Amino acid sequence: MSASSTETWLTPATFDRLKDELDTLSTTGREEIAKRIEEAREDGDLKENAGYHAAKDEQGKIEARIRELEAMLKNAVVGEAPEASGVVETGTVVTAELAGRESKFLLGSREMASQTELRVYSAESPLGAAILGLKQGDTTSFEAPNGKDMTVKVLNVETFTP
């Protein structure tokens, strides 16, 4: 299950949770923030009205999250995790040696974090992009966000079970 950079792999449970979040934000979330903005607007001068500015900031965050969810759900690849074949792909649990320490994580969407105790890395992250397609025993290096070169060795690839 190799997902392109515009596709996001999600389990059915995660898809449903995100769809519910989108529905809530698009309806009651927008209604509540509009009411807060209107109430704050009635308090007078908008230049010095902290409540108004806080509500407008919150409105911007809600609208950004709605756009993010719409794009993610539109491009979602929904299904159970792929059966591990020894190759790192989106939806697999990877055990890797990273900076001399063993680390176990899920390669998937950050939205999957609520379904697992594991750390979740996206396939687009520096680590995820470096190991995507590697096999158990393969070693590679990548540039970490802090600018340092990191070496990673894939020790094991397993099927993700939420």
From TrEMBL:
It comes from the Bacteria. Pfam families: GreA_GreB (PF01272), GreA_GreB_N (PF03449). Residues 9-78 form the Transcription elongation factor GreA/GreB N-terminal domain. Residues 85-158 form the Transcription elongation factor GreA/GreB C-terminal domain. GO terms for biological process: DNA-templated transcription elongation; regulation of DNA-templated transcription elongation. HAMAP family: GreA_GreB. Belongs to the GreA/GreB family. Necessary for efficient RNA polymerase transcription elongation past template-encoded arresting sites. The arresting sites in DNA have the property of trapping a certain fraction of elongating RNA polymerases that pass through, resulting in locked ternary complexes. Cleavage of the nascent transcript by cleavage factors such as GreA or GreB allows the resumption of elongation from the new 3'terminus. GreA releases sequences of 2 to 3 nucleotides. This is Transcription elongation factor GreA. The gene is greA.
